[in-house]
Amino acid sequence: MEELIIKLFSENLEINQIYKTSFLNQLFIDNNINFNNVMTLSYNIWNRGMSKPFPLMDNISHGEYKYVGINYNLNGDIINVPRNERNGRIEGNLEYKIGEWINGDYKLDNYIDFNDWKKKSKDDEGKKLILLGTDFELRIGGIIKGYKLSNNIGDNLLPIETNLGRIVHRKYVGFIFKRPNYNDECEILTIL
To answer: Cα-flanking dihedrals φ and ψ of residue 191, to 5°?
Structure first.
């Protein structure tokens, strides 16, 4: 199956071009290939339904993938998007950092390898990430303040379209960063 998918993609997709899930699913259908989970071909989004990592694309947003091909020299986080075991649907506002790619090789946090991660219980998903609607505390310099990542502006709401909102989106407790144009260190302390 892997060789068939590699051939299909190399003949029909262009490297570094962005494709929607619906287009990729139709490509499989048009070529009589029984494959129905595009997410499992992603470098950066994993779920326990995968049989093994077989990455060909970079998930850039919900339902959009950049085709980068096999053996891509990626640097970045690996995110787990849990699915409800009963109905197979994604479980709301939950995503976890479970590892990272470093120069094209992956390393999982607190796991020996991919199979070890698959065996772990759902209680041990990894580091919970900040998504829209998430409440969290942030230390900026010496001040601790609570926020909620939001699409709106208001008391204690941090709009995702702001610089700070973009920095903390999909980050985890313990993430430390410096704000552009400021001379301070920030740290995510708690995700509620």
So the answer is: -120, 125
Helix (H, G, I), strand (E, B) or coil at 54: coil
| Radius of gyration of the chain from its Cα atoms, rounded to whole angstroms | 18
C-alpha 153: how far from its chain's center? Answer: 25
pLDDT digits (tens, 9 = 90+) for 55-92: 999 988 778 999 999 888 888 888 887 765 444 454 55
Phi and psi at residue 114, to the nearest 5°: -60, -45
Residue 138: CB atoms within 10 A of its CB come to: 20
| Amino acid letter, residue 92 | G
Q: How far is CA 163 from CA 80, 97, 181, 192, in A?
A: 25, 21, 11, 22
Rounded to 5°, the CA angle 119-124-128 comes to: 130
